[in-house]
Amino acid sequence: MDKNLFFNTQLTDQQVALFYLGQEGFLFKYHDTYVLIDPYLSDYVDQNCCTETVKWIRRYPAPIAPEEFDFVDYILCTHAHFDHADPDTLSKLAKINSKAKFIAPEPIKDVIMSYGISEDRIIGAFADKVIDLDGCKIVPIPAAHEELRADENGNYYDMGYKILFDNVSIYHGGDCCIYDGLKERLINTDILMVPVNGRSYYKRYIEDIIGNMTSEEAIILAKETNADMIIPMHYDLYDCNRINPAQFVDCLFSMNPSQKFHMFAPGEVYIYQK
Prior knowledge:
The chain contains eight helices and 14 strands. With 274 residues, it is α/β, with parallel strands linked by helices.
């Protein structure tokens, strides 16, 4: 990917550029605002998370090095799992983006600080409390990574984020499943970005892999919220935790063939037109 090409891309008020980094990592550009979410640009999981029964081996390399992202304004983390809050990636991003702010669920601020990022650079995300930033607004939305988890103060460990630019809205669900109250928070969102790798008893309790929405659930959610476009995530990086994207496409054409969608290849840049 040519960083300068992305950096110099001119957008209208009705457009946002999306750069796919793999797993659930994306860079969003709206005019001169750059928002990075869940960047995983190392082999940290491969090196630290393999067990006798589960081998984490990247199916493709990171499409860009974190050192290339020296122009980012905001870096969002949905939860503390290493493929979403990667110590190697985040520590490098903090060094080359001295003014960038990090946004993470309040209960995991200490995790982000342990990567060498100072507390004054981290904004704790609280459910439904709008974070008003230069260039956009962020609405943290609780994520049920199979279940909703909160600390003793009722603050959620797992979040999705609704990102409100002037004329375009994006929901990035992080790792999540459907729960009562999610749909109502997402009505008329332009772009719905949700994981589709599903879940199962075997993966959860034998392999210790916590699951997400199925393709069917994601498609129903997009229809119920009147999303203009759905973008599936979390289906392609690790063999032990992926699905064939053709499954999602087949479900979509069976269940809601008029729904707009986009399936990303690693390193792809896509310009959404509202």
